[in-house]
Hints:
single chain; alpha/beta; Rossmann fold; Nonspecific Lipid-transfer Protein, Chain A; 2 domains; five-stranded parallel sheet; five-stranded mixed sheet; 11 helices; 12 strands; 35% helix; elongated
Amino acid sequence: MNILVLNGSPKGERSNTVKITNAFLDGINTTQENNINLVNISQKKIEHCLGCYICWKKTPGICIIDDDMSELIKMYINSDLIIWSFPLYYFGMPSKIKAFLDRLLPTSLPSINIKENQSCGHPGRYDLSHQMHLLISSCGFYSVKGNYDALFKQFEIMFGKKLSKIICPEGELLNVPELSGRINSYLSDVRAAGKEYFQHKSFSEETLHKLDKLFYPPEIFIKLANMSWELDNTEDGDVSDTDRLELFLRQMAALCDSSMFIKDIVFEMHFTDLNKTYQLLLEKETCTVKTEDFLPYTTRIEIPFTLWLQFSEGKTNGSEYEKDSYKVFGDTEILLKLKSFFSN
């Protein structure tokens, strides 16, 4: 199968959405090795359509503009599956992939015909009846409703029943290493969806249900998102280690699952490389970060912040040679249960 991947993110390979797309491609290649062309639209020379209609009148099917679109149109026509991969930008698509879409005008004929639903449009210049389309997109909201409505309508008008969708709200979390467990589970579901799509050219209701699940409930996601913007919006753009540390601890507090402990816990952390001490007050209803007026601790750990980050990102599990790098005081059982406290 010839697959054309149109990566419409201005970030290119750094795109969060591309992580989803790559997982899907891994899945679709499980059964058979496909011919995949991945095009980073941001790196291509694509001018805006002039609306001159020369591609309809003087040179049918050929655009007057000399840029990369002539080759891209050939790839488009010869593909069995088109994957549109991009983040949501202002309730639509990023501008350059919209320019690409506009420049597909030579693939249509100038005549107007009436469709079965009594609407009208331009017939295709080429027989693309075999062609399928998949929209893969992520966004920084927790809800598809009210955000993707216009984009969905546009793609449904263009491709009808040949269109499938993988939409990932809360997509900014795909770039957070500390959430790798939750993210990797989602990407595993996307790989399974890719394998299923190869076999059936669609997704089952069960698969769609898995892919539609949010990473976190809206109230938690909003807390995490707003915290990260507070950090990004520093006046000089420079973020100190202390700022990053305090954001990390506030994110920990937001992800705390208070149902996992039956008594109040004071978890104290002294980060030896930064010479900073903080407390997490784990109560039955809330989890808060304390930077002063410390309470007697239940458990205290003395550890470099760099090593603590490696723990949280799953890059290490505290092997013997690392145990010399940290010390634990008080109730050591709390440290063993810490992962379950922050299972969110």
